[in-house]
Amino acid sequence: MVTHMGLVGLGKMGANMRERLRRAGIEVTGFDPRPEVSDVESLAALVDALPGPRRVVWVMVPAGDPTRDVLAELAGLLGEGDVVVEGGNSHYAEDQARAAELAERGVGYVDVGVSGGVWGLENGYGLMCGGDDDDVAELMPVFDALRPEGPREEGFVHAGPVGAGHYAKMVHNGIEYGLMQAYAEGYELLAAKKGLITDVHGTMRAWQRGTVVRSWLLDLMVRALEHDPWFEAIDDWVEDSGEGRWTVDEAIDNAVPLPVISAALFARFSSRQPESPAMKSVAALRQQFGGHAVRPSAE
């Protein structure tokens, strides 16, 4: 069982995960390019600091090239019996390819979807993992330290073989898109009826207990409104980190209808447009067939 592990990436989530693991009695050697937060100077030094015969390194860096680069370097440092845990938001198909490459060196691979954000240090993290049964069993002390208090099955799942963890997290994040969009649209409709709804923040706060729409996301919405009731301090640009797109792609490949999640993803795209060429086209068409009025461009 794991008593000492490596952790690569000490950003907002990684640093908190290191602290939560240490509080649970698991020794953690962390590496980050920023020397002020790192325990060692390099990935090689991190691997050297870990006891054998079965070393565990958890990678918690942004998906894409940063993850690929770290895993490529680790492949040359780890050996037979060691295990890599990929805790970012990589695409599940990449997990399967990486696992096959590392298996040739005798290195195990477990992919873990992690949910909890900056609140995970105190609340724990929801964990969805994919991998070999033996590798997952070896890592259970780590998972138990990171997950929320309470029954294991309410904050942790071994969803299946390699790739299953990130696939489950992808769907989780797609659902998150839809939930956030629904709360956002409800907020906008309440705010639009200022003559009748005089306390938008209070209305949403009243939904936090006893209602069927109560949730942690609603709690965070109410918290945000406390600081900025009309969201005047922020722009309406909303980024997407990839999981929503992958979720919609999977829906198309499997012929599964996802109208809510798809619409939420497209709403994020529309948030980035200073003006909408498509809606300009609609206005022009209405003018052409019906003589409807159009407004001049702001420019």
TrEMBL record:
A single MF term (Gene Ontology): phosphogluconate dehydrogenase (decarboxylating) activity
Keyword field: Gluconate utilization, Oxidoreductase
Key word Oxidoreductase present: yes
Record InterPro entries: 6-PGluconate_DH-like_C_sf, 6DGDH_YqeC, 6PGD_dom2, 6PGDH_C, 6PGDH_NADP-bd, 6PGdom_BS, NAD(P)-bd_dom_sf, Pgluconate_DH
Domain of life: Bacteria
SMART domains: 6PGD
Keyword Mitochondrion annotated: no
Pfam families with a match to the protein in the record: 6PGD, NAD_binding_2
Residue span, 6-phosphogluconate dehydrogenase C-terminal domain: 165-293
Gene Ontology biological-process annotations: D-gluconate metabolic process; pentose-phosphate shunt
UniProt-listed PANTHER family: 6-PHOSPHOGLUCONATE DEHYDROGENASE
Entries under NCBIfam families matching the protein: gnd_rel, PRK09599.1
Family: Belongs to the 6-phosphogluconate dehydrogenase family.
Protein name from the UniProt record: Decarboxylating 6-phosphogluconate dehydrogenase
Lineage: Bacteria, Bacillati, Actinomycetota, Actinomycetes, Micrococcales
